[in-house]
Amino acid sequence: MFLTAILTSLSLITAPYNRDVQLLDGQWSAIIDQYETGTGKGIYIDKKPEGKTDFIEFSWDGAMKLDVPGDWNHQRPELWWYEGTIWYSRHFNTEKEPGRRKLLYFAGVSCRCDVYLNGQKVATHEGAFTPFQADVTDIIRDGDNFIAVRVNNNRLASAIPAMSFDWWNYGGITREVMLISLPETYIDTWFIRLSGNSSKTVEAEVQLSSNEAGRKITIEIPELGIRKSALTGADGKASAEFKAPGLKLWSPGQPVLYSVRLSSGEDSVEDEIGFRQIVTDGTKVLLNGNPVFLRCISFHEEIAKESRRAWSEKDAEELTKAAAALGCNMIRLAHYPQNEHIVRMAERMGLMIWEEIPLWQGIDFTSGETYGKADRYLTEMIARDRNRCAICFWSISNETRPGKDRDAFLTRLLARGKELDSSRLFTSAFDVAYYIKEAGEFQMKDSFASLLDVIGINKYMGWYAPWPDDPENLRWNVFPGKPLIISEFGCEAKYGRYGNADTASSWSEDYQAELFKKNLAMFRNIDNLAGISPWILYDFRSPYRQHPANQDFFNRKGLLSENGERKKAWYIIHDYYNEKK
């Protein structure tokens, strides 16, 4: 039975990549453990035979090698479909450094893991798309150290996501592993943002790693000539509010970021931080006080042409540049928190972000255990990314169905999210807007949705739902007092297939292009439309998509093929977005 206890600490150090880091990436030894015998046989200890009659049956000698970061599925043919447990290990050299702390930080492991250092269990974590850490100061040794990680990607009814989801279930240590060296007392977390509705006042909350009162914390923004200090309270936290008269606000057309320096005692750290306002006004979304139409696209954390998880800065650049080339001012990170490189790259490029946790259909809303996992997912996502001004929307679910248990679950989760961060808009995507023939319009009943700032609607007219009338005649009456985003629409088309623009089963670019034209015609009748987000940028891998000739385990709804080739629908959205600029 795989342990699913809470990780060592829910605290996550802010901006770990900006610290004194020893990367533990590279080739790790790996052993498939299909029968779950590794823990009982002590594989995490790296035992060696000691006598002539001694032997080790489950040994790292001659083990296969896997790249970290990286999913295991694409690295070896025998792991292409594998779901189960694989053990990873490696030796590394480091120094103990008296008077300093050592944090072992995992940016992402899919999907649950146990971590052992020098034979001791230091962390357990579940959740493929958020980071976790462990303080290993007292376990690290001078010289050689041995780390072993038990990784499992089995789909579970109690997991998030659960048993069935429309993307590939990549397994492995899919993001960086770092050993971070810090002073004995260090700056642990911070949240720096505009204060309320002001465009020239900054507020900051800075938390030390220990509960020490009276410690001085200094905040500097050199470009603005700002240097402010505050003292910590008994909880080790300091708060400050100060004027920044020369501040320029971040926006897609002007993605201004400032170098912010924090210092306290022996510790200092820098981060790039931007400042912006995002609010709603009736049916409008206002960015820095101005209405903005959200020209969005979704993509998965995947380099589809290589059938692998994206993890590097180069991968992040490829994905975000493809979104920018389409004419986007926003991306939706579907359907989970993607790696920090993607978030920061989008921010530097001037792309707003919709980021969500993978509460995607099929969730057990009656389970307290499942709620605990959702709470941790949301907490870890916000803890990692709350200083990223590009993130304008926190989304807590996708395509869930109304019901007493679901409504209570999501309402509680929404309250938790707003408690953690009230400086963003909260949203979810729904697929329960239906055409009511008697009323002659689309309507939606969902009491939970009414609590959100912005409503996302997934509606695949012309694909999963037939057109009830000519698109230009279709009216919408879905939460008319709130901003509405069409968060998904489209259909599948195989790149290079043409003809039969009126036949869905043609799987042709022509049908997809015609369907996009019809959807855009329908959208003109949505008075509260604040943006659209076609599904999806690239064709992507999915075991859910099984048509041998047309899908071959790829979802073909991309505007681009898995190789980045532009389908006809790409040009339609490109032209539409350029008209909306």
Number of strands: 35
| Shape type | globular
Oligomeric state of the chains in view: single chain
Spans where pLDDT lies below 50 across 5 or more residues: 1-10
Question: Roughly what fraction of the amino acids lie in strands?
Answer: 25-35%
Measured as a percent range, the helix fraction is: 10-25%
Compute the number of helices.
6
What separation lies between the terminal Cα atoms?
54 Å
Strand order of the largest sheet: 21-24-25-26-27-30-32-33
Description:
- It is a single chain.
- With 581 residues, this protein is α/β, with parallel strands linked by helices.
- The protein contains six helices and 35 strands.
- An eight-stranded parallel beta barrel has the order 21-24-25-26-27-30-32-33, surrounded by four helices. It has a six-stranded antiparallel sheet with strand order 3-2-4-9-6-7, with no helix packed on it.
- Helix 1 packs across helix 2, helix 3 packs parallel to helix 4 and helix 5 (509-523) packs parallel to helix 6 (568-580).
- The chain starts with 19 loop residues before the first strand and ends with a helix.
